[in-house]
Amino acid sequence: GADPECEKGPGSEKNSCGVHVHEGTSCESGAGPHYYDSSKATDPWCCISYTTYSSAGSALDVGVLASTGVDLKDVEGRTLIVHDFQGARIACAVLK
Q: The pTM is what?
């Protein structure tokens, strides 16, 4: 579920090598925009990305904090999207 082109980190395209929670609740239909309370926060997902490692596969090797302005329970049922180097969606999961 990660793009080998992200070996050097994200590029200049929007969402390049990104990992984000989206508003949608299904991977089969539109995932919608990034999920956060825009009245309390700016988009916390804009700068969260991953880097792939050719020798060990792909990984986020450090934790990240995304201040979304919503409670953790509100994220349940939303989609987690992985983006490729060009910013396209390449993997999806519904959070439980």
A: 0.84
